[in-house]
Design goal:
By secondary structure, this protein is of the alpha+beta class. The chain has two domains: 211 residues, Heat Shock Protein 90 (2-Layer Sandwich); 138 residues, 2-Layer Sandwich (Ribosomal Protein S5, domain 2). It is 31% helix and 25% strand. The protein is built from nine helices and 15 strands. An eight-stranded mixed β-sheet has the order 5-4-3-6-2-1-7-8. Helix 6 runs antiparallel to helix 7. The radius of gyration is 22 Å and the shape is globular. The relative contact order is 0.11. It binds adenosine-5'-diphosphate (ADP) and magnesium ion. Magnesium ion (MG) binds next to helix 2. The site of adenosine-5'-diphosphate has 21 residues, from helix 2 and helix 4. This is DNA mismatch repair protein PMS1. Belongs to the DNA mismatch repair MutL/HexB family.
Length: 364
């Protein structure tokens, strides 16, 4: 077979299906946009577990009229303007791909305003071009509604139709992880069933403690036996090693603040499974199994019977890690990873030893 170009339309479909792989990635991208727009109230409404539609309603910044053309255009973003910006950003998104990809695989409708009550409803074609623009009224913020998800990808649509309950529950797990770490933001998640009844599935109250969010998400025992943890990983001590990478300017201290909640090391407060282990970098839920392993391993020195529960945020300057590894941005490359892990282990042991010391002091 000779080498021929793929049509632009099909390239779009192929690449979009990598950005939005399932219900979870669709919802995750939209929630991240609301968080990036500094919303502190975010409502997510699934219609028939997302099979009909999903609506994300926020009270964030809204989108200005002059940005309407760009909002669903491929690789158009308000978050970076060049590659170097990635090492400085604090937003969850930066590739300008999500809305454009969603247009290719679902029907997208955006209602938004920066100067209420006058708002605009935008609809788009599969390439992300505006097909309809109407005036309506709305309080400040943005609503993104996607319907008929995966209509242009028959295999994936079939799979979604078949496994929608499993997909929905996976999606809830991710929504839990965002709502737990984002203190000060009220999350509510609803499902409208096929009898048109709206059920609340998840709600946080926008309190300023992670502990309160855990209680909201998991009920009154949600934070049972968990204590605050605050440790600092100081990587500067490794600076003299030739293999040690520092930021390009070399001017930043390589410090990582680790804060959150973790199970007490005394017996009885962990869990048999690792289903309540939440890890974040700069409040972005991430998957870094080696860190889970270190935490489990250190915890074992003190408690042989259980695994720890934890909600831990690693605050790291963006120049010390690379988030641009996988489309879902959950995989992270940390600079000097092995040294970070070494330091984490050392500081965790110190932290738990201190707990033991406090405990024995109280009983002496
Ligand atoms: P990215 O988040 O990588 O910039 P997206 O495709 O997710 O790309 O969004 C494109 C742009 O649309 C964003 O850069 C932002 O300016 C705007 N946008 C999307 N969703 C919202 C929202 N909920 N509130 C305000 N602006 C939004
Ligand atoms: Mg985005």
């Amino acid at each position: 077979m000779s080498i021929n170009p793929i049509s632009i339309e099909d390239i779009h479909r192929i690449t979009s299906s990598q950005v939005i792989i399932d219900l979870t990635s669709a919802v995750k991208e939209l929630v991240e946009n609301s968080l990036d727009a500094n919303a502190n109230v975010i409502e997510i409404v699934f219609n028939n577990y997302g099979l009909n539609s999903i609506e994300i309603i926020d009270n964030g910044s809204g989108i200005s009229d002059s940005d309407f053309e760009g909002v669903a255009s491929k690789n158009h973003t308000s978050k970076i303007s060049n590659f170097e910006d990635i090492s400085k950003i604090n937003t969850l998104g930066f590739r300008g791909e999500a809305i454009n990809s969603l247009c290719s695989i679902s029907h997208v409708k955006i209602t938004t305003t920066q100067s209420p009550p006058k708002a605009t409803i935008l609809e788009f074609d599969s390439n992300g071009a505006i097909t309809s623009q109407k005036v309506c009224s709305r309080v400040r913020g943005t609503t993104v509604c996607i319907s008929n998800l995966f209509h242009s990808l028959p295999v994936r649509q079939k799979d979604f139709n078949k496994n929608f309950k499993r997909e929905f529950s996976k999606c809830l797990t991710i929504l839990q992880s965002y709502s737990i770490i984002h203190t000060g933001t009220k999350f509510s998640v609803f499902n409208i069933n096929n009898k048109n009844k709206k059920h609340l599935v998840l709600k946080t109250q926008g309190m300023d403690q992670i502990k309160d969010n855990l209680l909201n998400v998991f009920g009154s025992n949600g934070a049972f036996g968990m204590i605050p943890i605050e440790i600092e990983l100081n990587l500067n001590k490794f600076k003299s090693l030739s293999s040690f990478k520092i930021d390009p300017s070399g001017s930043l201290d390589y410090l990582i603040q680790v804060t959150g909640l973790i199970s007490k090391n005394s017996n009885g407060f962990g869990r048999a499974t690792n289903d309540r282990q939440y890890l974040y970098i700069n409040k972005r839920p991430i998957s870094l199994v080696k860190i889970n392993k270190i935490l489990n391993e250190v915890y074992k020195f003190y408690n042989l019977n259980q695994l720890p529960c934890f909600v831990l945020n690693f605050q790291i300057h963006p120049s010390f890690f690379d988030v641009n590894v996988t489309p879902d941005k959950r995989t992270i490359l940390l600079h000097n990873e092995s040294k970070v892990f070494e330091e984490l282990k050392e500081q965790l042991i110190k932290f738990f030893d201190q707990q033991d010391y406090n405990l024995s002091k109280n009983f002496s």
